[in-house]
Automatic annotation (TrEMBL):
<dbReference type="Pfam" id="PF02140">
    <property type="entry name" value="SUEL_Lectin"/>
</dbReference>
<dbReference type="InterPro" id="IPR000922">
    <property type="entry name" value="Lectin_gal-bd_dom"/>
</dbReference>
<keyword id="KW-0430">Lectin</keyword>
<dbReference type="InterPro" id="IPR043159">
    <property type="entry name" value="Lectin_gal-bd_sf"/>
</dbReference>
<keyword id="KW-0677">Repeat</keyword>
<feature type="domain" description="SUEL-type lectin">
    <location>
        <begin position="133"/>
        <end position="214"/>
    </location>
</feature>
<feature type="domain" description="SUEL-type lectin">
    <location>
        <begin position="13"/>
        <end position="105"/>
    </location>
</feature>
<dbReference type="GO" id="GO:0030246">
    <property type="term" value="F:carbohydrate binding"/>
</dbReference>
<protein>
    <recommendedName>
        <fullName>SUEL-type lectin domain-containing protein</fullName>
    </recommendedName>
</protein>
<keyword id="KW-0348">Hemagglutinin</keyword>
Amino acid sequence: MSNQSLCADHVVACELSTAELSCDSGQTILLIGAFYGRADRTTCIYGRPDGQFNNINCFTRTANRIVAERCNGKKRCSVYAMNSVFQDPCSRTTYKYIQTTYTCLPARESCHSVKYCNTASMCVSVMSNQSLCADHVTIALIGAFYGRADRTTCIQGVPDGQFNNITCSTPTANQVVTERCNGKSRCSVYAVNSVFQDACYGTTKYLELAYSCECKFWKQTVFFFPTMWI
């Protein structure tokens, strides 16, 4: 296995249909990218009126998170290409589709998820326990979040009023962590406002990220979409 090139699978499903992601026995899904909306005038146009694919610059910002939550770590999963799942990023007159790119990892190599509190130093090491790729392993960010989304994370010793806002996040988290960590064997990112900008003044925030350990040659076979866990 360590001498083989692992390719990514690319799945497209038109609106109101289902995207089916699956892996062989002993493997689990790792999402690389998901897109729901419309980015061209060639995908999913058969039998549709011309006016339903004029808008080619609309997509939802939740696609990566939703598909990752439903599929990562599973052998197979189904995702419906519907506005009720992703919200309507365009308009009712635009016919949309979902695109997903994923790869299959041995079950023991499924993604890692870590959280770090505001002001804490975050260090990620991915050098150990990587029999699949031996010494050719690098960090591949799946998603990063800086802000607050609950009242249970990083609250020890924090005054009650500093974790009431649970709907704040910075839009730069993915970009910042990607630039500092992707393609490296280890990296450090500080969970501080000076790095990510203050997403919610007066609220104690935390950094949460999910990442996988990938072979360097995977980058030659995957597709990337505009959202990439925005």
